[in-house]
Write a structure and sequence with these properties.
The chain is mainly alpha-helical. Helix content is about 45%, strand content about 0%. It is built from 5 helices and no strands. Helix 1 packs across helix 2.
Length: about 90
């Protein structure tokens, strides 16, 4: 199944592979280690049959794992700044 997925990916991304497959599909897939069923299905060009090759397989859409970034706003809110020496409560005087 991996070879089928690789072939379809190559056909989607590489214009030279696309041209080669259009001109001679059998030659374009000859070098791949495909089963008789996979080879026959690909040569039909039938989208539903090709999709059926992947029935039951699950492919992750995306897996992203990174270290979390530091929190830009510390929680809980930081305490207020302490009073400076020159500050005093007006009621104390």
């Amino acid at each position: 199944m991996t070879n089928v997925l690789e072939l379809l990916t190559d056909l989607a991304l590489d214009p030279r592979q696309q041209v080669a497959f259009e001109q001679d599909p059998e030659a374009a897939i000859a070098h791949l280690n495909l089963s008789v069923t996979e080879r026959g299905t690909l040569l039909t060009g039938d989208r539903q049959q090709i999709e059926s090759l992947f029935a039951g397989d699950r492919f992750p859409l995306a897996v992203i794992a990174t270290d979390p970034a530091p929190d830009p706003l510390p929680d809980p809110d930081p305490p207020p700044f302490p009073d400076t020496p020159g500050d005093s409560d007006p009621s104390e005087t």
